[in-house]
Amino acid sequence: MPMTRPSRRSAFQRLCAAVGHAIVDYRMIAEGDRILVGLSGGEDSLALMHALTYLQRRAPVSFTIHAATVDMGFPGFDLATLSAYCQAQGWPHEVVSLPGEEILAEKNHARRPCGLCSRLRRGKLHGLAERLDCGTIALGQQLDDLAVSLLMSLFRGHGLKTMGPHVAADAGRKRLIRPLCYVPKAVVHDVALDMAFPTVKSCPYLPLLDAGGDRARLTRLLGDLDTQYPGVRQNILASLKHVETAHLLDRRWLQLPPQTVENDGGSERGSDADDFTE
Fold first, then answer.
1. What confidence category does residue 117 fall into, taking pLDDT thresholds of 50, 70 and 90?
2. Contact 65, 182 (CB under 8 A)
3. Which CATH class is domain 9-245?
4. Would you say the pTM of this structure is higher than 0.85?
5. At what angle do helices 214-228 and 143-156 cross, to 10 degrees?
């Protein structure tokens, strides 16, 4: 299988430009870094691997890349095709295996598999990173994923947050980076078509999740919003990069006057909600 080349450069160029800007903005890669890329076989992770490989040849710093796949043992996962593709691209590729269905059934997570499955995969990636002496793990979440995670957290009351582009892990011993954080899913999909990515099905739960999962529902909502507010993904990105803490309700970030009220004895005490509601 020859080295894959995009038939049109525009989508891949946009991808690499956005990845390059994200790497610089969030200081994701430094001289001598050893990076483990989580390669599920989906469009996002394959696009990430291609972009990092492309930028590796042009970056002002030297770094190494290893592709790693966690095989959950799900029926239909075409690991052979993914491994052959990695070999054709010249990518070092490691595989670790887990009995995913057995673990999900044992933990009673078969109807809501994503949280546990993600933790299991992440744990294996961290272990592999230790073995390969990789201090950085690169994950393939793109801009749509970050926008949907923000909506999920907002709607569930879990705070104004999303998946960070560059965060510490393992008590600071490793770093997690998301170089696709500026890249809309549509661009990734265009790259996948241009470069004829292989189709590797890795999750038998997708029909269930697409029918009733929160993430799938909010992904559809994000698409609906884009028809009413064109460019909504880029606007969400701009807002995530411009947080005005003084206009939120988190008291840790507000410059409030001292909380003092005089009681009958003339001394100061901390005020209580009862002072205003009695």
1. confident
2. no
3. alpha beta
4. yes
5. 110
